[in-house]
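Sample entry (133 residues):
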Amino acid sequence: MSWTQVFVLCSLTALLIFTFSSVVEGAAVRDDSKSGDPKGAEQQVFMPESDASNFFKRRSRRSARYYAELQAEQRVRLATDERRREYNEEQRDEYENYVEEERDEQNERSREANEQLREYHYDGLYPRYYWFH
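Predicted structure, serialized as tokens:
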């Protein structure tokens, strides 16, 4: 097939699709609510200005909150702080254990190395360990 035949075939397919798409109303979901009354839809979305201002006056940033709400926030904050404190303490303990184990292993390795050096250099004439006071 040459490119002209492919082009003609694609064009005919597109023309066929456009022809039948004008017949079909569309694939959108119908809205069975009051479609003829635009004022009803506006009433569902918008509220009167006085109600809106009362809503924002009731719940503005500077408005006083209820005592129970403050107590609940405080409990959540304290619980979060306690969890963070426990987590940090656990991490610190794990790190301290890790450092202690590493230090013990390093001391053991250096002690073994020193013993091997003493064994290697020991000539039998002197006592094995020198005790300095």
